[in-house]
Design a protein that fits this description.
The protein is an alpha/beta fold. The protein contains 15 helices and 15 strands. It is 40% helix and 16% strand. Strands 2-8-7-6-5-3-4 form a seven-stranded mixed sheet, sandwiched between helices. The structure holds pyridoxal-5'-phosphate. Pyridoxal-5'-phosphate (PLP) binds next to helix 4.
Length: 404
């Protein structure tokens, strides 16, 4: 499918007005086919999956499992049983940290990048506190660079797992995950990848990355809120204890004994989000139709337009790489003398949606010595006109705050 400025408004009706949406790193807008898929599940397939012998429940189960297969194909997992549906990336990362963390003991080490979203830090902090393991941090350079040799230096024989984002939600730079994985595996360390910000922008292949675990949310990938994914290598997931307990995750229960279900059901306690899984399936179908070649081309063009325009505006400081190619639609910045919340409020006044704050990456902001920043984040559904409007507002901020 070819994306044009004209069909974007039909595909994403929420974008058809005057509002300029530049907060896609927080959540992406949904194409009509996703809304239709969720609606269709409730209208035609709604029953509790995996629980009934009747036709409707079988249809609901088949629909849910079809979504799992689509996700497996999307990230090139070897087997659909390696795909666990969760609520979001946060829950996926909590699952790994909790279940993998259960086997950690004093003397073990967990390594996380300082640039991580709190969702990929706090679950590991809890795992360390519970097990007595030590949590250590890999700092990036001021421009967000974190090379495999920096990782090699940080690993010790005690490092059991390294958890890191493929694309930081502040810098937008792609981290060299395959290189990290090679370094980790040579050291006997597992690698857990937070792909929340990468799956919407680049093709992610868990096998070529050699990721042991990989997490993302459906809602940043044009899918519904309420569905997330955890990928794990089968041999690893098999060894992990369940995270949540309850219905549907068991084979047998008596007062004395519990036998857990096979993968992936052992990790999916309670009624599943089948309609959201159907929505995610539609989102992935849509992304495949548009194609990553087109997505990357459009997003790079828009990122360049924004980046180059921002560089021309005095007092605007962009965090991260000094080239548009390493931003993947994420432009985090400050303006000299103006508080980020004032910047965001001015943009909001002019109907442009951007974000201000620490973007759930407070340890990174502390490392950089900046309390908060502003982030504009785009997707392939943005247009040149959106970027021009953004730059127009940006160029007025200091004067609207009373500066020359
Ligand atoms: C890099 C990264 N990881 C994790 C998350 C958490 O995603 P969710 O809130 O959907 O669980 C986000 C959300 O902004 C993110 O940007």
């Amino acid at each position: 499918m070819t994306i044009t400025d004209k069909n974007i408004k039909e595909l994403f009706p929420i974008l058809s007005g005057d509002m300029i949406y530049l907060d896609s790193a927080a959540t992406a807008q949904k194409p009509m086919c996703v809304v239709d898929a969720v609606r269709d599940f409730y209208l035609n397939n709604n029953a509790n999956p995996m629980r009934g012998m009747y036709d409707l429940s079988i249809r609901a189960t088949d629909d849910y499992e079809a979504s799992r297969q689509v996700v497996a194909d999307f990230i090139n997992a070897a087997d659909s049983s390696e795909i666990v549906f969760t609520r979001n990336a946060t829950e996926s990362l909590n699952l790994v940290a909790d279940s993998f963390g259960a086997a950690l003991t004093e003397g073990d080490e967990i390594l996380v990048a300082t640039s991580e979203h709190h969702s990929n830090f706090l679950p590991w902090k809890k795992a360390a506190e519970r097990s007595g393991a030590m949590i250590r941090f890999l700092d990036c350079l001021p421009d967000g660079t974190m090379t495999a040799s920096m990782l090699r230096e940080a690993l010790t024989p005690a490092t059991k797992i390294f958890s890191v984002a493929q694309i930081s939600n502040v810098f937008g730079r792609v981290n060299p995950i395959a290189e990290y994985a090679a370094v980790c595996h040579k050291n006997g360390t597992l690698i857990c990848v937070d792909a929340s910000q990468s799956v919407p922008h680049i093709a992610v292949d868990v096998r070529s990355l050699d990721a042991d675990f990989l997490a993302f949310s459906g809602h940043k990938l044009y899918g519904p809120m309420g569905i997330g994914v955890l990928y794990g290598k089968k041999k690893l997931l098999k060894k992990l204890p369940p995270f949540l307990r309850g219905g549907e995750m068991i084979d047998y229960v008596s007062k004395e004994k519990t036998v857990f279900a096979e993968l992936p059901h052992k990790f999916e306690a309670g009624t599943v989000s089948a309609a959201d899984a159907a929505g995610l399936r539609a989102a992935i179908g849509f992304v495949n139709d548009v194609g990553f070649e087109q997505i990357e081309e459009r997003e790079l063009h828009l990122t360049k337009l924004a980046f180059e325009g921002m560089k021309k505006i005095p007092h605007v400081n962009i965090l991260g790489a000094d080239n548009a190619e390493d931003h993947h639609g994420i432009l985090t910045f400050t303006i000299d003398d103006v508080h980020p919340h004032d910047i965001a409020a001015i943009f909001a006044e002019d109907n442009v949606c951007i974000r201000a704050g620490h973007h759930c990456a407070q340890p990174l902001h502390i490392l950089l010595g900046i309390p908060s920043t502003v982030r504009a984040s785009l997707a392939f559904y943005n247009t040149d006109e959106d970027i021009e409007k953004f730059l127009g507002v940006l160029s007025t901020i200091r004067s609207r705050m009373g500066y020359e």
